[in-house]
Amino acid sequence: xxxxxxxxxxxxxxxxxxxxxxxxxxxxxxxxxxxxxxxxxxxxxxxxxxxxxxxxxxxxxxxxxxxxxxxxxxxxxxxxxxxxxxxxxxxxxxxxxxxxxxxxxxxxx
Length: 109
Fold this sequence. Notes:
The chain is mainly β and 109 residues long. The protein has one helix at 57-60, and strands at 2-8, 13-17, 20-35, 38-51, 66-79, 81-82, 85-86, 96-108.
């Protein structure tokens, strides 16, 4: 189990996958550290999804709200496409893209 603590970047969106509600939203988690005596501020952004969510949850997840999200990381690899054609890498092989989503199992406000 992993945890992200941060602020919602934009208002959440509700979509249906079959009969299941899926609420999607982006979270920004801030990290501060010192390099050569100077404070460096960095934000990491996570695309998140909450399956089997109440349709009312989307109204509560608004831009700027601070949340604690528990869940797991879902990696994904896929072949890049451009107008229905497979994109080719410089080595002549299909171009492989990767993404990571965070699947939320519980939220705290």
